[in-house]
Amino acid sequence: MTTTIEPSIATTHTVVVAETLRTTRRGLLGWTAGITVAAVAYASFYPQMAKNGAEQTANLPEGLRDALNMNDIGSAAGYLGSTVFGLLVALLAMFFGAALGARVTAADEESGTLDLLLAHPITRASLLLQRFAALVAAATGVGVVLWLAMLAIRGSAELTSISAGRFAAQCLHLVLLTVLFGALATAIGAVTGRRGTVFAVTAVAGVTAWAAHTFADQIGLGGLAYLSPFHYYIDSEPLRHGIDPLAVVVLAAASIALVTAGTYRFTRRDLG
């Protein structure tokens, strides 16, 4: 699921956003298929979990059930919010955002093609921002496909207690989470210019944020959860209550701040 972005995209007659999406289409299709198939496969297990979920989770320590939000695994919203959107899909989206963000500038700088791109009439800031806009478009596309997939299996998987609007709210929160980690990767790439470093640091930060959100109460540091993007992504339970305006604002504002900082540094750094 790796792709390369051709250095010819930054021409006078080419829109960077569209060309970025075109040249990365195979990787984007792979990520979209992977996230959607994983979500659909696990969501399809809900009828079995509705019948036997309480028995299957009874042997888990109470603290672990609380941490993983598995106390209401017998309901559709509880099951999807804990195992599917709360864990599997969230972590996949995090890595997806990191992978896309690593390619905004760092991939070309590391491969030595960034100079060729910037030799065309395009500024550093414009290149970074248009590449990031392509990342937002790609994340939105994944969210839309996932939403349609959930609606497609909604009846057969006995998920009708969750409305189409609530599924849309959860997918919007997922898009914002993806964009946030993409913004973090973009900013790190703008500072370091090394794709491997970008992906590694973003992945570690993401897993740490997920662990802080999940286990903060168990270690007596519940306040840490509010510093994690996963708190704003899932704790308002979009599958039950719909879109959380505060969560949307926080995730979007954090993404804007990261990209702004990355752009500032990228436009002033010696690219060698």
UniProtKB/TrEMBL annotation:
<feature type="transmembrane region" description="Helical">
    <location>
        <begin position="167"/>
        <end position="191"/>
    </location>
</feature>
<dbReference type="InterPro" id="IPR006311">
    <property type="entry name" value="TAT_signal"/>
</dbReference>
<feature type="transmembrane region" description="Helical">
    <location>
        <begin position="246"/>
        <end position="266"/>
    </location>
</feature>
<keyword id="KW-0472">Membrane</keyword>
<feature type="transmembrane region" description="Helical">
    <location>
        <begin position="132"/>
        <end position="155"/>
    </location>
</feature>
<keyword id="KW-0812">Transmembrane</keyword>
<feature type="transmembrane region" description="Helical">
    <location>
        <begin position="76"/>
        <end position="100"/>
    </location>
</feature>
<dbReference type="Pfam" id="PF12679">
    <property type="entry name" value="ABC2_membrane_2"/>
</dbReference>
<keyword id="KW-1133">Transmembrane helix</keyword>
<protein>
    <submittedName>
        <fullName>ABC transporter permease subunit</fullName>
    </submittedName>
</protein>
<feature type="transmembrane region" description="Helical">
    <location>
        <begin position="198"/>
        <end position="226"/>
    </location>
</feature>
<feature type="transmembrane region" description="Helical">
    <location>
        <begin position="28"/>
        <end position="46"/>
    </location>
</feature>
